[in-house]
Design brief:
This protein is α+β, with helices and mostly antiparallel strands and 208 residues long. It contains 4 helices and 11 strands; from the N terminus they run αββββββαβαββββα. A 7-stranded mixed β-sheet has the order 2-3-11-10-6-7-8, with helices on one face. Strands 1-9 form a two-stranded antiparallel ribbon. A hairpin with a 4-residue loop joins strand 2 and strand 3. The N terminus is likely disordered.
Length: 208
């Protein structure tokens, strides 16, 4: 008498769960490389509102002043952001090792050039973090046509100057828009398209 085993069926439910987990993991990895403190991006309370697209904004009169960010740039010069008061400042935190940073770099290169060529009252400043050599950072800027300066901050010490509870850049990439008085008007902790970047800058430029 011979016995035959019935073929084992794989659980389609288990496979679906596995695929869902992989998809979610990939989506999170593309949203932000890491939190600025080495962990996950974290939120903070304060007098601001976060919109549907993940951009947080603070109304005039309720904005936290951005700290002084100063030091050596990727190209070996020096920069002090407090000297930029009177202009709208776009701060972008990035690393050459970060895939979402590479994805958004063309948008930053294009928008910064167009606004500068148009004589708009705005300046762009990068903050390069966790690159163990300036050469990697400089190659990134050359590859993507980034012409504005970036402070070289391999240890992320400059980011620790932002007060807790403010719209601080606690993920990589992060983008902040400072008003003409140096207040933090808008922030996002995700990579930006050209249109999304303009939507952050234009309202602050329009302020009187």
């Amino acid at each position: 008498m011979s016995l035959s085993r019935a073929p084992r069926r794989r659980s389609t439910g288990g496979r679906a769960l596995l695929l869902t987990a992989v998809t979610l993991t990939g989506a999170l990895a593309l949203t932000a490389c890491t939190g600025a403190d080495g962990g996950k991006p974290t939120g903070s309370g304060g007098n601001y509102v976060t919109g549907e697209k993940g951009v947080s904004t603070a109304a005039k009169g309720e904005r936290t002043e951005a700290p002084k960010l100063d030091g050596e740039t990727v190209d070996g010069k020096t920069l002090d952001t407090t000297a930029l008061k009177g202009k709208v400042v776009v701060l972008n935190v990035w690393g050459s090792w970060c895939p979402p940073c590479r994805a958004e770099a063309p948008s930053f290169a294009k928008v910064s050039k167009e606004l500068t060529d148009a004589g708009k009252d705005v300046v762009f400043v990068g903050v390069n973090v966790r690159d163990n050599s300036k050469q990697n950072a400089a190659s990134f800027e050359e590859t993507f046509g980034i012409t504005y300066p970036s402070l070289y901050d391999p240890d992320g010490k400059l980011l620790l100057r932002f007060p807790k509870g403010s719209l601080n850049p606690n993920a990589i990439p992060s983008t902040l828009v400072l008003d003409r008085e140096g207040g933090i008007a808008a922030r996002t902790l995700a990579p930006l398209s050209e249109d999304q970047l303009r939507s952050m800058i234009d309202p602050v430029l329009a302020e009187q």
